[in-house]
Amino acid sequence: MKSYGQLCALAKALDVIGDRWSLLIVRELMLGGPCRYTDLLAGLPGIATNLLATRLRQLEDGGVIRRGHAPPPVATTLFSLTDRGAALRNVISELGRWGGPLLAEADGDDVFHSRWMTLPLDLYYIDASPALPPVTIEVRTGDEPMVITTNAGKVHARPGTADRPDAVMSGPPQLVIAALSGRIDLDEACKGGLSVEGDPAALARIKPA
Length: 209
Known about the structure:
- This protein has 209 residues and is α+β, with helices and mostly antiparallel strands.
- It folds into 2 domains: 9-87, Winged helix-like DNA-binding domain superfamily/Winged helix DNA-binding domain (Arc Repressor Mutant, subunit A), CATH 1.10.10.10; 114-208, Nonspecific Lipid-transfer Protein, Chain A (2-Layer Sandwich).
- The strands form 3 sheets. It has a 5-stranded mixed sheet with strand order 6-5-4-7-8. A two-stranded antiparallel ribbon has the order 1-2. Strands 3-9 form a two-stranded antiparallel ribbon.
- It has 10 helices and 9 strands.
- It starts with 8 loop residues before the first helix and ends with a strand.
């Protein structure tokens, strides 16, 4: 790993996590917990296998991740964040907040995994009517469905489906993200191809903080 050679905390941090793909590896481990090498490879479309191996070794040397072993019958190597790696959560969240407006300019060919929405929804969104009963929203976009729930004014998101959601939102990722972020209103999104089943008022509860 090449160092900036500067006696500066930011430079020293970038010596460890500033290389291409490094923070995206941290993102995957933050979202999915301990992961196999193949899980990380699937979650990082575009990375070369040799580069992933190099970045994992560098992050391990830097104390950001650790290797462990899954119990039998799996018996495979698992990568997970150390306490120091988990402490990057605020760094990841602030970079995500800063990059949020750039999603509007994203290329339509960009790869999208729906689980990437979980972190921003958990961190930046609130229930606009916390005094009302909780709501459950199923979002069908990308590679797998997501469930958004409200509780005591907070918003939580997870991969999966809901038994009896209050509303179901379906559509292409760019349109779903634009509607959830408030860049376009729900009526406009529906005219553009978004599908909403159930109670639209439930969707109105989910707002950027």
